[in-house]
Write a structure and sequence with these properties.
mainly alpha, two-stranded antiparallel sheet, transmembrane
Length: about 90
């Protein structure tokens, strides 16, 4: 007994890629390559921007920002109800 598939000639079941062999196919491949490059460039710019912001904040908080600076805190009141501000010393 022969099945229907046995009577058919055997062919390659994997379709051949002819996309790059025609001018339209080459243009389509070029468009895909351009889209991929734009996507990669966008991701690279994003990563660099976020990293730069993180570096700027790290430098600011490690070198410039001082949390214990002297501040003006009202501590005394004069008899005429005006407040005199005194400065508290900065912690060493």
């Amino acid at each position: 007994m022969s099945s229907k598939s046995d009577s058919m000639p055997k062919t390659n079941s994997v379709p051949t890629m002819t996309l790059g062999k025609t001018p339209a196919g080459k243009a389509k491949m070029q468009t895909k390559a351009n889209k991929k490059m734009v996507r990669m460039a966008t991701v690279a710019v994003y990563v660099l921007a976020v990293s730069l912001a993180a570096i700027v904040l790290a430098v600011y908080y490690s070198l410039i920002w001082r949390p214990n600076l002297a501040t003006n805190v009202p501590t005394e009141t004069t008899p005429d109800s005006t407040t005199v501000a005194t400065t508290t010393p900065a912690a060493p």
